[in-house]
Every structure is written in structure tokens, then in C-alpha cells.
Design goal:
165 residues, alpha+beta, two-stranded antiparallel sheet, 6 strands
Length: 165
């Protein structure tokens, strides 16, 4: 696991961010991101471009990962899940370990060799490393805003600023 992922997954960092967001917005604690397993719709043995087009557009944010948000099966997928939780993003997740055709098909579709893969508004954003950089720089908040999603981290920061006034 690279150093960036180790930083975000360091015990206490994520929980402190989530805890502060939860204090600002108690609804966040009760919110569970929805996700769909790749095998739920029993995709065909070979996935064509139109099928993958549909999958990446099922929600504003779609993640192709190893495992599911409740039980990620690799550290990079787990890092993506933690970032999405910190921002309070509802997203569709597809477990590529459940379907080899999906696993290879999404790699070919995005021309990106690794999993996880994140799509926002049907556009490929990148994998764990790129999402991590966007999260740390604040660019993720801006990208989410473009598709009508207000980050819980931004809401918590605004609430903190309002409380100071």
C-alpha cells in the first residue's frame, strides 16, 4: 500500500473527520451508502461497451472495486470507500471479484489497468491514488459539486464557520 493510502487509513484520522462531520450533521451517522453488487443483475459473460456505459451512468458516482463498501477486499478499495464515507457520498459499487468479465471489461472500457475505478457523472476519474490526491487537495469537493453533490466535509466546515460567527 502506498504512503498516501497509509496516511488516510491511519487510525484516528478518518474517525476524527467522520466524527466532526457527524457532530455538524447527525443525519450523516444514520446514512449508509447504497451499493449494488456486480452480480446482482447477472451481467452477461462478455460485457460490451453499451452495457458498461449503462453501468457507469447508473448513479452520479459509481465505483468498481474489490469487495463491497461493507467489506472491501483490498486496501485500495477500502481507501476509496473511506473517502466516499468522509464526504457522505451515495454511490453504486460493483464488486469485480464476483464477475471476471466485469473485472476485465471495466479495465478495457476505461483503459486503466487497476481496480478500484471511480466514475463521476459517467466520466472516469481514476483509481485510489488519484481519488486520494483529489481528496487531499480539495478537488474532489469541487468535482462532486459539479454534479450536485455537497460534501459532508464541506457542510461540517461551513457549520463550524457559522458557529464561530
Amino acid at each position: 500500500m502506498n504512503r498516501i493510502c497509509q496516511i488516510i487509513l491511519r487510525p484516528g484520522l478518518a474517525s476524527n473527520l467522520v466524527a466532526s462531520a457527524a457532530r455538524a450533521n447527525p443525519v450523516l451517522v444514520a446514512t449508509v451508502p447504497r451499493w449494488y453488487s456486480a452480480d446482482a443483475a447477472a451481467p452477461p459473460a462478455a460485457l460490451d461497451k453499451p452495457t458498461l456505459d449503462k453501468l457507469v451512468r447508473t448513479n452520479k458516482v459509481v465505483v468498481f472495486m474489490k469487495g463491497n463498501p461493507q467489506a472491501p477486499r483490498c486496501g485500495f478499495s477500502n481507501a476509496v470507500v473511506q473517502i466516499m464515507r468522509m464526504h457522505g457520498v451515495q454511490y453504486d459499487a460493483h464488486d469485480v471479484l464476483q464477475n471476471e468479465a466485469l473485472r476485465q471489461g471495466i479495465k478495457d472500457y476505461s483503459d486503466w489497468p487497476t481496480i478500484p475505478q471511480v466514475f463521476i457523472d459517467g466520466e472516469f476519474v481514476g483509481g485510489c491514488d488519484i481519488l486520494m490526491q483529489m481528496h487531499q487537495s480539495g478537488d474532489l469537493i469541487e468535482e462532486l459539486k459539479k454534479v450536485g453533490i455537497v460534501s459532508e466535509l464541506l457542510k461540517a466546515e461551513e457549520a463550524k464557520d457559522d458557529a464561530k460567527k
